[in-house]
Amino acid sequence: MIVRRVRDSAADAAAVREVAWAAFGEPLEGPGRAVRAVRHESRTRHLAQTDPQGCWLAEQDGRAVGAALSLRREGLWLLALYVVDPAVQGRGVGRLLLEHAAGHGRGCLRGMLCASPSPAAARRYRLAGFTLHPAMLLRGQVDRAGLLDPGDIPVHPGGPAQFHLLDSVDRRLRGAARGPDHGFMLAHYEELLVADSLAGSGYCYRDGGGVKALAATSKRIATRLLREALARVPDGTEARVEFLTAEQEWAVDVGLEVGLSLETRGYLGLRGMRPPLPYIPSGAFL
What we know:
Layout: E1 2-5, H1 10-24, H2 33-50, E2 55-60, E3 63-73, E4 76-84, H3 93-102, E5 110-115, H4 119-127, E6 131-140, E7 156-157, H5 163-174, H6 181-188, E8 191-197, E9 200-207, E10 210-216, H7 219-231, E11 239-244, H8 249-257, E12 261-271, E13 279-280
Parallel strand pairs: 4-5
Antiparallel strand pairs: 1-2, 2-3, 3-4, 5-12, 6-11, 6-12, 7-8, 8-9, 9-10, 10-13
């Protein structure tokens, strides 16, 4: 077995996607599969360009059996993907991948990751020094009767002109800006919503029924953004808001108000920092 850096190539991006889908049990067929494949592979190539030292692929007999994608933004190290093919789990592949990826974060005082419910992954993260905060998932059909009051804070579509504002919000909440990741997210997600008023600032990325990331300078702004994002979920589409820790009760309350169901799922792993508040992490970029 060899562990090497992920190259910015279509072949490596496809290999990372295939091993990730094998690990997560992605269905072989289904609506939106082609779109998800393109986005997954595009993210891999994006990170291979911005953070080549943080992206690693494990191969055995010429076949990908594991991958780790990480990024470093200012003083924050983030693990965006960590997967091992179920056929080779328990053989040390995951340990080697995490060691290589973690080297990219050497010198960073803070770290963040979104973890699946996998006991093996949770053990590995805890041994790496991460505090594991149990997370919740909101999902279901949006009851529009709970959205009758739009609130008095204006929310509007955003674009590249607001990236400096978004970076300012992120630095305040998590100590590091997203930087080049905003360009990718804007290109691949359906819309960016921005609030900027005397009451504070914030933003939210939405794609279909998924709230992909949200950050704001106050719970009031965050609540307004989340309600607006859920109001824009198309009828018949399942809404999903993931990786909510107990600190994000404001988001839980919004979800329950509009009829979403609540369940536990996975962890938000943090090192050297407390959960950002109010904040909903991006599973792809945190």
